[in-house]
Amino acid sequence: MRQTWRRYFGPSTMVTAAFIGPGTVTMCTIVGVRTGSALLWALVFSVVATVVLQEMSARLGVVTRLGMGEALRERLPQGLARFGALALVFSAIVVGNAAYEGGNLSGAVLGIQAWFTEGAVDGFIDGSVDGASSVYWIGVALPLIMGAFAFAVLYRGRFKVIERVLVGLVGLMSVVFLTTMFMSSPDWSEVLRGFITPNIPAGEWLLVVGLVGTTVVPYNLFLHASVVQERYAGPEELPDLRRENATAIILGGIISMSIVITSAANVQGTGIRSVMDMAQALEPLLGAWAPYVLGLGLFAAGISSAITAPLATAYAVKGIMGWSDGLQDRRFRAVWMSILGIGVFSAMSGFSPIGVIQFAQVANGILLPLLASVLWWLTSSERIMGEYANSQWVRMLGGGVVFVTVLIAARSLWSVFGG
Questions:
Q1: Where are the alpha helices (DSSP H) in 90-158?
Q2: Under 8 Å between Cβ of 114 and 121
Q3: Which parts of the chain register pLDDT below 50?
Q4: Distance between CA atoms of residues 256 and 211, nearest Å
Q5: Whole-number pLDDT of residue 62
Q6: How many whole angstroms separate alpha carbon 278 and alpha carbon 282?
Q7: Kind and range of the H or E element at 169?
Q8: How is 350-412 classified by DSSP, letter by letter?
Q9: How far is Cα 64 from Cα 70, in angstroms, rounded to an integer?
Q10: Rounded Cα–Cα distance for residues 294 and 333 (Å)
């Protein structure tokens, strides 16, 4: 019998580690500042959608022993449509994760920065001369150290090592952000209203898109379908998979909600734009511990995503290219090393590839409904899944999720191209 904790935490915890990154922490902070608890319902939808889509992705991997990339390559009909779909996957995931990796590492660095260097965050951002030497050390050495840590975890090529590191980081984030939420003494009636009353404050539609987009992440579909094959031997273990899938993703949703609730309770209506700004606002509540507590949470969010983004990219490329070997294959390692190396360079240089990030965001906006639709079709097919195909209610629920992702993608693209 497995250890008790492993019944509830496993490959799905990697999904949580991936979507609770610096971008999610910042987005949830901004949502709380600008709208209070009004958009908590959007996080509820995001969590439900993620549970549904990730369960289908994981079930596809366990039953067919195919990753998402392999499934796309083998099951889509040959021709221009398949080529276009695979090119879109490459654009959104490979290019996107290369662009985002610098932000993941920078988030981890800023978290550590909060522990050791008073005022270093401001100095690092605005380039002030005061404390320039320490800021330079932090800006150069810490990204290398964070990159080396991620490299060591991934290079070992052992699934259990990666899994346990990420479970530990998710647990750390849970303790930090949930403790901060309860200490902030929120108005629980407002919190409840935000959960049960769908409402979008005027002009804040893009915040809804942001909450969904930072939770329902396309590359996690590739990551999950592949890593479950390292843990689960066959379909007879699907009940275990579903249990730990729901546990891990709901926990991730609770972490996001706790950040929104904390920022809504303490800093709503202020000019705060990041979790480190929020640390300053929480000093009356947490005292001198505020930057240490939130810095720890930001570090865990950054380093966990810095590990999962290169790993997910490598799995996606492996599937698209049809490589048969796994974690220790040289080509597989070359992919994640490239993503990690680009991230370290970006974090060290302070370079922010805004144009590349915007391109990746648009590509991901198109990719999510496409992947969700294909995943729903694959897992609904009895020819592919046999007796483990989607049940009637899963087809209905999954179809609803796909429909909403199409609407969100259309609205997002309209905001980009249509004004």
A1: 96-116, 120-126, 132-155
A2: yes
A3: 1, 119-132
A4: 9
A5: 97
A6: 6
A7: helix 159-183
A8: T---HHHHHHHHHHHHHHHHHHHHHHHHHHH-HHHHGGGSPPHHHHHHHHHHHHHHHHHHHHH
A9: 10
A10: 33
What's the pLDDT at 13?
93
Tokens of 207: 């915040």
Sign of the torsion formed by the C-alpha atoms of 251, 256, 260 and 262 = positive
Token representation of residue 376:
């729903």
> CA 254, CA 274: separation in Å to the nearest integer?
19
CATH, residue 210: 1.20.1740.10
Q: Are 177 and 262 in contact (CB under 8 A)?
A: yes
pLDDT attached to residue 119:
47
Q: d(Cα 184, Cα 264) in Å, to the nearest integer?
A: 10
Neighbour-count burial of 158, counting CB atoms closer than 10 A to its CB (0-12 exposed, 13-18 middle, 19+ buried): middle
Predicted confidence at residue 121, as pLDDT, reads: 43
How far apart CA 214 and CA 20 sit, in angstroms, is: 8
CB–CB of 93/222 below 8 Å?
Answer: yes
Helix (H, G, I), strand (E, B) or coil at 38: coil
DSSP string, 203-232: T-HHHHHHHHHHHS-HHHHHHHHHHHHHH-
pLDDT, position 192? 96
Dist. CA 23–CA 180, nearest whole Å: 19
pLDDT tens for residues 351-373? 665 566 566 666 777 788 988 99
User: Distance between CA atoms of 61 and 384, rounded to whole angstroms?
Assistant: 12
- Hey, what amino acid is at 265? A
Count of domains in the chain? Answer: 1
Determine contact, residues 262/95, Cβ cutoff 8 Å: no
What are the residues whose beta carbons fall under 8 Å from the beta carbon of 124, sequence distance 6 or more?
110, 113, 135, 138, 139
Q: Are the C-beta atoms of residues 301 and 16 closer than 8 Å to each other?
A: no
Query: In this predicted model, what pLDDT tens digit does every residue of 29-59 receive, in sequence order?
Result: 889 988 999 999 999 999 999 999 999 999 9
CA dist 88 and 303 (Å) reads 27
User: Residue 147: which domain range?
Assistant: 4-417
Closest CA to 253 of 24, 14, 7: 24
The Cα-based distances of 177 to 116, 193, 250 in angstroms read 20, 21, 14
